[in-house]
Specification:
The structure holds three protein chains of three kinds.
Chain A lengths: L2 E9 L2 E11 L4 E5 L6 H8 L7 E10 L2 E2 L5 H7 L4 E4 L3 H4 L6 H10 L6 H14 L5 H5 L8 H13 L5 E5 L7 H18 L2 E6 L2 H7 L2 E6 L2 E7 H6 L4 H8 L50 E4 L2 E3 L10 H6 L2
Parallel strand pairs in A: 3-8, 3-9, 6-7, 7-8
Antiparallel strand pairs in A: 1-2, 1-4, 4-5, 9-10, 10-12, 11-12
Helix pairs in contact in A: 4-5, 4-7, 5-7, 7-8
Chain B lengths: L28 H11 L1 H22 L32 H37 L1 H15 L3 H12 L3 H27 L3 H8 L4 H37 L11 H9 L6 H29 L6
Helix pairs in contact in B: 1-10, 2-3, 2-10, 3-4, 3-6, 3-8, 3-10, 4-6, 5-6, 6-8, 7-8, 8-9, 8-10, 9-10
Chain C lengths: L8 H30 L7 H4 L3 H10 L6 H13 L14 H36 L4 H15 L2 H19 L17 H27 L2 H8 L4 H19 L1 H19 L4 H10 L3 H29 L6
Helix pairs in contact in C: 1-13, 5-6, 5-8, 5-11, 5-13, 6-8, 7-8, 8-10, 8-11, 9-10, 10-13, 11-12, 11-13, 12-13
Classes of the chains: A alpha/beta, B mainly alpha, C mainly alpha.
Amino acid sequence: MNLTTEFGNAAGTVRAVDGISFEMDPGETLGIVGESGSGKSMTALSILNLVPEPGRISGGQILVNNQDVVSMTSSELLEYRGGDVAMIFQDPMTSLNPVLRVGFQIEEAMRAHSRFDKRQAKERVIPLLQRVRIPSPQQRAKDYPHQFSGGMRQRAMIAMGLANEPSLLIADEPTTALDVTVQAQILELLKDLNRELGTAIILISHNVAVISSLCTRVMVMYAGRVVESGPTRQVFDHPEHPYTWSLLRSVPRVDERRHERLISIEGMPPDLSRLPSGCKFHPRCHFKVDRCSHEEPPLAEVAAEQEARCWVLMRNVSSQAQALKT
Amino acid sequence: MATVVPTTLEVAEELQIVGGDQLPEQVTLWQDAWRRLTRNRMAVIGMVIIGFFLVTAVVSFVWTPYDTWRQALGITYSGPSLAHPLGLDDYGRDILSRVMGGAGIALSVGVGASLVASAIGIILGLLAGFYRGKVDVLISLLINISYGVPDLLIALILVVLIGRGIQNIILAISITAWLGMARLVRGQTLALREREFVEAARSIGTKNLKILSRHILPNALGPIVVQATYLVPAAIIFEAFLSLLGLGVPPPAPSWGRMAVEGYKAIQIAPHIVLAPCVALSLTVLAFNWLGDGLRDAIDPRMRR
Amino acid sequence: MFPRREVTRGTLVYAFQRLVLITFTAVVVSSIVFIGVHQLPGNAFASEHRATAGTEAALLHHYHLDLPWPQQYVLWLEGLAHGDLGESLVNLGTQITPLLLREVKVSVTLGLAAVLVTIGVGMSLGVLAAIRQNTWVDYTASTAAVIGYSVPSFVWAFLLILLTVSGFYAWTGGAIYEDIGWGKIEQIPVPALALGLPYAAIVARLTRASMLEVIRQDYVRTAWAKGLSARVVILRHALRNALIPVATILGPLVTGIITGSVVIEYLFGIPGLGQEFVTSILSRDYNIVIGVFTFYAALVGLANLTVDLLYPLLDPRIRY
């Protein structure tokens, strides 16, 4: 499976996603990090061509298994959604239909596609529930969503997503609505599934720790653009974009010294209808230079497989200057 | 009676302090609601229609082109003419005058019943919701029983028992209608009494009566006004039903319902007789419903600004 | 569309409790009417029938009206326990219970037809307006809905009668003439429409609002993401959930239809419970009035109970 996406995704005159481009290899795990409003959810929805009105994909192409999603017909899209690419959402309580049995909702996902016939679909439900480690699946399949716990609901969602054995599973903040312990279990599950089934995963989160535990590659988004990308370990150990750097600093780490105050990034995410000129991050950036305020930097390769969109780059900032901002 | 979904809201001056030199004007809840109401086209049309009928009704109390009860003004069943713009009915009475008189009756009954029912309902609802206890149990029981009995039948029986006549009819309708208002007010009171400003008032020693009148009632006023507005057309239709069955305002009073049923008998040969009161009735009810809808949207805090 | 649900013990207990409550309400309500009626001055015979003194006394005795009213009440209660509602005051010898049973069948038929109209027309209109929100379809449907419940049912009745009876007759040059009344199956639609249209309008309004809310829910988004067709998403996912708030007003709605049937039966000459009620009130046949009231209280109670039992079918989170 090969996923290439590149789009300018507009919502009215506001660009929720502006010129993103990336590729994925089969079985790869990609993380997308950013604050709310950075365009990460929009990116995910765009891959499924599910951008809600009045928004729409205004340019580019999304190639999945050599088919361009943007130009698909509606019947092709029906087969594609939930078939080649599946998506699970943040809040499993509200994302499952409360009046239908869970088993039915999973079966429904398969019946809507041509991969499995009616009988096979029915038979696959219980094994799927077992796969996601839901205990007593025979009973659970007949239950309704409100009878499940939060973690179990999310597992059921995952089962539903994987029912048609998609090449790609997109998980939009799958752990945000869950307890911390359950979070770890879900991430563990996703990791195992990725290994066992070879399903590629795009994990979207604002939580850096979650991304680093699962994803081999990461993409950092800000104001609808990619500001940094590369192998997770590398990017998190050596962030080059000030935004990435700030994100990482704001996460308390056990092995750091304790600071007197919590570090956060000053300022607010920009209003997409009134973006600053030049680099979109510069109003909040501690390390900007003159150029940043009137010229937007391109996404450039800064190290092996790592790209960043910055004129300055953290490697050029002295460690004293860095410490001052701590 | 119509069902209304209540919302609670704050009566507080809305201040928006924005950094910089511009300070948007301070607007009270009611001013804001009024502004939104007047921008709602249907509501405005409704108000115009109501105003028209209101004026007609008031005028009819002192003057109508002909006496509403005077018969044999011309050939019976005759259609519209210059002398009689809406024609004559089966007794030779001028329909226009009767429609005017009917407006007076309809609005008297409608507004009257709504006011009486609301008054009773508000008081009892407040008491039930605020004091709970036996009063609440009794009122809730009444409300629940009322679900099991059709209100028209009760009103019919009441009218038979206490006699016809416009005040009795208003009373009969109010007796079946206050329960709806009481239920609404009780619900609002229950919710509002838990709010912090009530607690604050209590903590500084405000007497219960004052809490009820100064804090709870004003905050529940929005949905109450909406409900009361919806009660008017319901009462008007109710009276029309009663008239239809021969138990409405007694003849020769020109209640629209009675005119309609009398005109219905001649529907094949003289449809204009039944048409006039039906149109008047429908327009009035429609106008009040539009107004009620407009009010409901205007006070809805989710739609502010 | 509806998953199979088990009838739990809780449901049976609930139903039983409700039935007890209904019986209790019916008895209480008709008792109130009984007592109220017996406080009226004069008796039913003095003015109406101008009977001689002898016949009047005999009649009074026959109906136990010469006894003090508390005793009459006890007698009546005893009769009630056996399902005997007594004898008509106006038509000597006519037993009330079988009479009303016949008529209740008519009324229930009419009522069910009206409910069908209400739900069928109302829901379709509401869903249509919701999925075509803010288009001309929506505006037309919404305005039609407001007009629908503003125009009283008897006006609809007049219009429909004009249209169907007079209209068909005129247009087909006398070939089609349907008399208004009851007995033939073609006579059901028109009164059912007149009765059901205002309520259909209310249901349409509510369905539209409910659908609009449901469509924005997360689970609908999930359904789209699963690649389900628009029809499945709208019908199976959205509508099923949108119906839940509509079901909550179904109780008062059915009560309203039962109320409205009084007027409609009268206008169309349908020999149902409503017409009986009006006739008996006007002719002072109080025994029948009390009987009708009892029937109505029971009817409304049963209708509401049925609606409430249907509720868990729609929303599995509810169970009794």
